Amino acid sequence: MNNKTKGFSLVEVLVSLVILVIGLIGIFNLHLVAKRGSFESFQQTQASFYAIDIINRMKLNRSQLAGYAGTYTGSLSAPGKSCDVAVGGNAICTSIETRAWDLFQWEQSMNGAGETKGTRSIGGLDAPTACIQISGTGDVLVVMTWRGIRAVSDGAASAGDFVKSCGTANKRRRAYSVNTVII
């Protein structure tokens, strides 16, 4: 008797499904890792943008350079006078008023005030702290720290004392610093 059957048995189908499911789980995990990496990269790009932004603001207001030094977390209150020509106003501001406006606007930007959902700011960096150090010769060090997605290591642990003191030390802290000269 010749008993040839064609097709798949139930065991073969189940083995194929198990292999397919294992592959799909791997693809989903890869997708999650890629999303996290993309967000971390975006946060670093944002930090570099904010550091360069305040440096450019300081260059435009050199007479107040020493007044920009400090630690900023988003707690500055709005200055009495808006010195932003982009808003459409043509207010004439002193250099002190310009410095106050620059710092306020910069803090608001790094905290995400430009992008909101309801009353919550959703743009900017996650829990940012910015520190600016200025020496008498025009050396400027701008440090941006923020909270990363996952705990890997402290981004400022191996840096200099000023960078280490910026932000809260923990395994999720990320740090970006720019050292330049404004003359």
UniProtKB/TrEMBL annotation:
Lipid metabolism among keywords: no
Pfam families attached to this UniProt entry: N_methyl
Domain of life per record: Bacteria
Record-linked InterPro entries: N_methyl_site, Pilus_4_PilV
Keywords for the protein's UniProt record, in alphabetical order: Membrane, Transmembrane, Transmembrane helix
Keyword Transmembrane helix: yes
Transmembrane segments: 13-34
NCBIfam families to which the protein is assigned, alphabetical: IV_pilin_GFxxxE, type_IV_pilV
Protein name in UniProt: Type IV pilus modification protein PilV
Organism: Shewanella psychrophila
Lineage: Bacteria, Pseudomonadati, Pseudomonadota, Gammaproteobacteria, Alteromonadales
